[in-house]
Amino acid sequence: MIALRNLRKLALFLFLFGMVPNWGESGIWREILLENFELSNYNQGNLRTKLEKGTKLPEISLSSNFTAPIPGSKQALVLRIPKDANFPFSLYFPKPIEVNAFIKEITIPIYSSQSNGNLTLIIESQDAEVRQLNLTSLNYRGWKTITVSISKNFDQNDRVFLQKSSIRILGFFYLPYENNDPNQEVLIAIDDITAIVRDKYRPLRNKEILLED
């Protein structure tokens, strides 16, 4: 009985000083779907480049025949990059994906035809700062599930009491490998984008500690 009381006191002490123990932490996090490429339309208008006007852009399509080997996938986004269009470009979602919860990590199945290019995720922080977060080098062939940490790279805490902040996921940026075979055609596919999230903690008005909602 005494040991139980001491354990409760320790848990209360850690909580009050912002050091929430990990007991039952697995129950805090949940997986959510951010984009499955089934409800939105994608076309050339979602592609942008900073190169001169008239630069050829990749072919973009949605395919139900070429999906990642994951449960429930019905459609994936496919980018075919002909050899004369293998330049840097951005792919933007039809509407930014806004997440108000605290994101631990994002997982994306990505297909590569072993082009040796690089793919990054374009994210707008709660301070309206747009950054690129490295996802993967495309130096492999086939599907690969990529997981990238958000909690380690972005401050997501609400800074104003009762004013919820959010992170906006804008799209992807592709950078080709400069020594690619000039005759090589590049193929990239992206499937269901998911995230591990939890509810945010809200700051107390007069204390620099976090209190769970």
Automatic annotation (TrEMBL):
<dbReference type="GO" id="GO:0055040">
    <property type="term" value="C:periplasmic flagellum"/>
</dbReference>
<dbReference type="GO" id="GO:0071973">
    <property type="term" value="P:bacterial-type flagellum-dependent cell motility"/>
</dbReference>
<protein>
    <submittedName>
        <fullName>Flagellar assembly protein FlaA</fullName>
    </submittedName>
</protein>
<dbReference type="GO" id="GO:0030288">
    <property type="term" value="C:outer membrane-bounded periplasmic space"/>
</dbReference>
<dbReference type="InterPro" id="IPR006714">
    <property type="entry name" value="FlaA"/>
</dbReference>
<keyword id="KW-0969">Cilium</keyword>
<keyword id="KW-0975">Bacterial flagellum</keyword>
<keyword id="KW-0966">Cell projection</keyword>
<keyword id="KW-0574">Periplasm</keyword>
<keyword id="KW-0282">Flagellum</keyword>
<dbReference type="Pfam" id="PF04620">
    <property type="entry name" value="FlaA"/>
</dbReference>
